[in-house]
Amino acid sequence: MPRLTRLLVTAGLFAAAFAALGLIWLDPTPVPAFARRGLIPGAYQALTFWTDQRAYPAPDLPAEGLAQALAQRQALAARGGEPASVWQSMGPHNQGGRTLALALNPLRPTTLWVGSAGGGLWRATLPTGGGVSWTRVETGFAVHAASAIAIAPSDTSVMYLGTGEVYKYQDIQGGTVSRPTRGAYGIGILKSTDGGQTWSHVLNWTRDQRRGVQMIRVNPTNPNDVWAATTEGVYRSTDGGATWANVHPVVMATDLLLHPTDPNWALAAHGNQSSPGKGLYRTTDGGATWTQLTAGVPTTFIGKILLDRHPTDLNTLYASVGNGISGSTSTWLLRTTDGGDTWTTVTTADYASYQGWFAHYVAVNPHRPNEVWLGGVDLWRSLSGGASPTPIGNIHPDHHHFAFHPTNPDIVYFAGDGGLYRTTNGGASFEDLNAGYQTLQLYNGTSHAWTDSTRSLGGAQDNGVRAFRGTLDWAHVIGGDGTWTAIDPVNPQYQYGAWQNLNLQRSMDGGFTFAPIVPPTGSATAFVAPFALAPTMPQRLYAGRAIIYRSDNRGSSGTWRTTNGGVALDGNPALALTVAPSDSNTVYVSTAPITTGASRTRLWKTVNAGASWTQVTGTLPDRYLMDVAIHPTNPAIAYVVASGWGAGHVFKTTDGGASWTDVTGVLPDAPTTAVVIDPLRPNDVYVGNDVGVFVSRDGGASWGTFSNGLPGVTLTSDLQISPSDRTLRVATHGHGMYKRALDGDPTANEPPAPAAAVALETVAPNPVRDRATVTFRLDRPAHVRLALYDARGRAVAVVLDRAMAAGRHTVPVEAARLAGGTYVVRLMADGRALARPMTVVR
Q1: Taking the model in full, what pTM does it have?
Q2: Which pLDDT score, from 0 to 100, does residue 792 have?
Q3: Could you please report the per-residue DSSP string of 30-68?
Q4: Of 31, 230, 792, 802, which is least packed with CB atoms within 10 Å of its CB?
């Protein structure tokens, strides 16, 4: 979590933080004592929100929902009909997302395998002359979180890959199981026998996507003897993964150490967030029996334990013990010199701090065993066997894994929430290696300038708000966990972004500097809280907590007003918020429940700018309602999409929410997060879910896939349309952002004529209030017809219809009497038709 967030996120700021279905709220409800005593990590909020959104109203994800959804997507894709266009990467290529695992090939140290938390498996090629070249590895399986990587020391062509990111496993009433703090689905363990070129599924957990693999260790002398620390306990295979046995079924195994010469000896660490059986265990008979090691081991820790060992003294082992969340911020570095019989606390320097449940490790330099690196919130190092460590380096905080160069003691690789870093001089300096590593975890609420296809904003988990400015390298403009954003459609100098819990900021210089314009606090607020501009009145902002606020002066100080007479809609925080493209007074807002059973999800609507709100939930399912799309010219038509499982995911109204029709049809049963309507083809509707992007060409009556060119499994966060270049933009939670060309502009029946060389150059200003100027060029004389069409393809004005000389021409288009909305400027020159969108704002 970036330092700004660590300084500002206090327990007093986030009350009701750990409700059972805990979005993190600004709310007067009491909070647990441990949450009141200190910091509440943004990572905890983000991962809890990730699970809540998908699991609700159940306490946890279903066992096999992802596998079934992928099969449904494949069946739909088999029908064919997807356009020839493909998705193209927009980046960012200069900032990696959360990264969990590293493995450096000991025989080819220029090859590094990297496991991302949402973008699957990657391979980094590291030339001796410096730099890095990245390749995303398509395994052929649904790998979201690549959580553990192991290369067999005795045969480096054999590799094992663990999947699933899980930080909590807790028994609750009724004997059911909840793992609420998690980051992605798990499918078990994959294996490669050709150095990562092809993969097979050796521990198949696709029928229980809730599980996770935390660490994999391979016998140093036998590539078929492999051990795995998992959420279900310690698994072992002695036949290369053909069969597995849970040799120590104590939940939340977090790490393992194997003996370099004795295949029957293993040390296992268990526990996180006070899971049952937490502690250190040792076996000397291959896992048949285990002994808990308690001498000198803390008993009160909440977080997890990570392990490492001395390279030559086989009895000297280290354990990094994290306490965990909020007020429970203490860390123990333990060392044993007798193989684990007794342990001594070497230091209590609190390097893990409030991330002891999430991000820390101990790493002993195999070339200089007194040099011990400690990863936590920040990076620390000891030159005396773990004693007296000091902070070192200035790289992105929250550290997850490491890799030492096999021959050079000064080269170390570090993986964390900011991607991949390296030192080549023993820590004197550090190098960012993220160039090309596209794994950023974007949220919904991305935005794109209407008049400039090279200007976009997106909020990212633990990586702030990022600005796309036409290249694959994005600028970092706001810290914290970036969330919703907006760009003024008329004047893109006004841009908006927020970090978690609606800490809203505004830029008046095109997104280069931002200053706070936070709406009033004091009511329940979602971690990823929504706000939006009114397209036809962009100085108007709506922002959602449990109370919905409005500013008619761009959020300036003193201009925020409560809607609904200052009364919360239902006491629950806003989750999605959409303003009608043609009416600044019409807004839809969804709300999500604070606690299990407190109240269901609901959808609300105002048609009078918030003076009053009407509940329009109707027959919508009790799932998180993640997004609403409103028809470009008719606000009575809207679509809403639902997350979760086992219910419909896309619903349509044609009467302003008085009734809803389930138009999910053949779409996969998967959490659905995004919906957008093509403003020029309003029957074209796009939706995004946890397995890809889909399109309907008939207003939801039928569906097809729209995923060509996306990574094999793509978790969609948001969909938006960039009007100026007619592309659909998808924000993903693990693969950054992509764009794809849409179908052409609406057409009308026009008389054919001989072709002429013509170019439609500009329509400016665009958006327009009163008058726009159309500029076009003719290479030779031609008959020109310039007409204006509305979003339904109906001609509303003929601006020009006569013979024109060769050359450049400018023609005014009067817009003062047009209703707000999107139109098409269509130029016909002797049979050739060209078109540009034009948006009228009011």
Answers
A1: 0.87
A2: 65
A3: ---HHHHTS---HHHHHHHHHHHHHHTTSSS--SSHHHH
A4: 802
